[in-house]
Design a protein that fits this description.
Elements lengths: L1 H36 L19 E3 L5 E3 L8 E7 L3 H17 L6 E6 L2 H10 L5 E5 L4 H5 L7 E5 L5 E6 L11
Parallel strand pairs: 3-4, 4-5
Antiparallel strand pairs: 1-2, 3-6, 6-7
Length: 179
């Protein structure tokens, strides 16, 4: 009888452990699904096409003060990333190709990274010479100003600082820019 009770207690404990692990897996899958939703290319993130580019100034990671007004007079692209975004790492890997395809230099490609400073510095190191990088702490005043709800998001502007396109996801199409 003692062995029967011990066996039932063991089976019950294993059942509870199995339930706890299953709930952890379901929670993780749900969180990954929510992150993937942020990669919807039709998601509404960024200012509306045709809107005037919101103005801001912030220190770039290189130390100089960057102002959105410096983008006047030519096409430009602003990309918004977060340090906790896996797709943003892929985006950064693709930035040199994006810069080459668009013909934009580092002064016309701006990357705003929101989140932890150490990780932002690592991300910025990969963009050295490719883009101007601005870091902001979460929740991100610049990202809020630009209505960024998903990352990575790229906002393309024309010479008069009007938004010509927004793209959410990793491979933005820079419509209207020189090839």
């Amino acid at each position: 009888m003692v062995f029967l009770v011990a066996g039932m207690v063991l089976v019950g404990a294993l059942g509870l452990l199995n339930l706890a692990l299953s709930l952890a897996i379901v929670r993780r899958l749900r969180r990954q699904g929510e992150q993937r939703q942020g990669l919807d290319h039709h998601a509404s993130s960024g200012p509306e096409v045709g809107a005037k580019l919101p103005s801001f100034s912030a220190p770039a990671l290189g130390g100089e003060l960057f102002s959105s007004d410096s983008l006047a007079g030519g096409e430009a692209a602003l990309s918004f990333l977060t340090t906790s975004c896996g797709a943003c790492d892929t985006f950064i890997e693709d930035m040199p190709e994006l810069a080459a395809q668009s013909g934009l230099d580092a002064s016309r490609l701006v990357v705003v990274i929101t989140g932890e400073a150490g990780k932002a510095r690592q991300m910025a190191d990969l963009l050295d010479g490719v883009a101007t990088v601005v870091h902001e702490k979460a929740p991100g005043d610049i990202s809020a100003l630009y209505s960024i709800t998903a990352t990575p998001t790229t906002v393309v502007v024309d010479a008069r600082q009007n938004v010509t396109a927004t793209h959410t996801g990793t491979k933005p199409v820079l419509q209207g820019l020189p090839a």
